[in-house]
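Dear Dr. H.,

I hope your travels went smoothly. While you were away I took the liberty of generating a structure for the chain from your last submission, since the lab meeting agenda had it listed for discussion. I wanted you to have the full record in hand beforehand rather than looking at slides cold. The sequence, exactly as received, is reproduced here:
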Amino acid sequence: MQAFLIFAIGGFIAQLVDGSLGMAYGVTSTTILLAAGMTPALASASVHLAELGTSLASGLSHWKFGNVDWRVVLTLGVPGAIGAFLGATALSNISTEAAEPWMSTILLALGLYVLARFAFRPLRRRQLTGVSSKLLAPLGLVAGFVDATGGGGWGPVATPTLLSTGRVEPRKVIGSVDTSEFLIAAAASLGFLLSLAHQNLSWTTVGALLLGGVIAAPLAAYLVRIVPMRLIGVGAGGLIVLTNARTLIKDFDLPGPSHTVIYSVIVVAWAAAIAYTIRVIRAERHQPETDPADAAEPVRG
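The corresponding predicted structure, in token form, is as follows:
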């Protein structure tokens, strides 16, 4: 019962982060399961099976609050499902350790770009022209493969890439990525069930992650609706930087004392960016509208 509660709380926290920022459910949940001694393949399988429920609940919640662009969901999600199935069936034979530092470096750079863009360069709706399928389809394929082989990665790959384009409203990026994750979870789960038929999955663990995630999903979707878009972007950017800095520190086996210094610098800089963004948002809300285009099309956040 104690393990069930721990995994349920972990699922709640993971979905609260994922539903609010469009990433980190798989990364958070898989980390908890690996720490509990589960093998990478079984951990990834358990997380994706739980995501069948959490992503469905999250998608419905985001749809209810108007956070979903269905074109993005389908154009990103269908190739993502193909990539996830391939990744799940190949997990036992493919090692992603060699590619992990390179991927983390790219994501770290994207995270810095997203954080700086939303902290210092606000987006306006008249600039949100949408993302081409030429980007969405290959992005979905790669993100789906990484997600299945790494136990997480759909959000960390898809969300920062879409946020960095500046062409889709952040809350709709998050809502659409979260909604399309159901397709990725379904395809990855099918791949794992076929390839791990000889291994025993812990359905209690799956149920605990699912319960915590389903409870958190509506709250996370509501937070996306009411939190200003700039603040969401800064929050997502900081999370991407922190997550991938941790991966790089582990990959390069840096000495212990340097860990504290690096994490402290990142957290302080992130907190400063959030504080600055909040101050700017408050100042903008007290300024009268002078641009006719802006008056006809009010900016959220």
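Two observations you may find useful: The CA atoms of residues 127 and 187 lie 34 Å apart. Residues 2-114+123-228 form one domain.

With kind regards,
E. W.
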